[in-house]
Task: structure prediction
Amino acid sequence: MDVAAKEAAIARFLDDYPRAADAGRDHPALQGCEDIRWSDFPECPAGIPMLLRALLDREAASEAERALSNCLLNDVRSMNAAMPTALPFLLRLAGDPQVSVRSELLDLLLGVVGYSKPVNADNEAMVRWFGSDSEHPEREQCRAVFAEHASVVTALAEELTDPDDRARLRQAAGLV
Result:
């Protein structure tokens, strides 16, 4: 999905949930998200802060999570270069018991874990399909964010019922 399609999806979301744009404006987990120039990232819409805030609107949260995922995951093979910047906000929101879409955020975080795995440079097919790590520095950057927020990751991993998911999340943070 290109940036114009992402912007259009955000506009449709706002048409459906106009009050969601103001939700969560003062939430501590989102402190600083408005200061980031999201549109400076390739293929990233400027409306990311609004979608992050809308995750705190119970009526719009599920649709906001879907729209946010579509904006931050470029396709089935890659995440947006903005993901490492969005990840701390997602981690903090997933750790907040008041957020109604915590389980969806945990699923998104597990997806980011998968997208963040290094690609073996010796595996030509994998490099052709997913691109090299040098072409996608966001992989390593996300792993660094997971490690930087290891205490949050540890708490979130404890909430997962699947032991493989717990291990994958911990591994992404360098905890195992």
